[in-house]
Amino acid sequence: QVHLEESGGGLVQPGGSLRLVCAVSGPTFSSHAMGWYRQAPGKEREFVAAISWNGHNTNYADSVKGRFTISRDNAKNTAYLQMNSLKPEDTAVYYCSATVIGGSSPDYWGQGTRVTVSS
Length: 119
Hints:
Blueprint: E1 3-7, E2 10-12, E3 18-25, E4 32-39, E5 46-51, E6 58-60, E7 68-73, E8 78-83, E9 92-100, E10 108-109, E11 113-117
C-alpha cells in the first residue's frame, strides 16, 4: 500500500511562491510516476503536472507552464511542486498522485493541501 501526504499549502499574495511537498510511504516510490492535480471551488479536479519514475520526463498544464516546476527525490520518497508567480486563479486544493509505471490514471491520492492566492 502506498500512502501520500501533502504539505506546504497556505495563503500567499499574488506574485508569490510556495513549494508543495508530497511525502510517500511504501517501498515502491521509484516505480510510480508522480503527479499534482488541483480542484478549485465549484470546479472539477484538473491536471497540473506530472513527472516520470526516474524524473527524466515532465508534463505540465498550459496554465502553469513556465511558473510551476515538478521534481522528485527517490532517495527521500518525496515529490515537490515549486509554484512561482502565483495568481488568484491558482487558488485550489492541490492533490498529489501516484501512478504505477505503465498506468493511465492515478492509483493513489493524497488528502490535499489548500493553496489560497489573495491580497
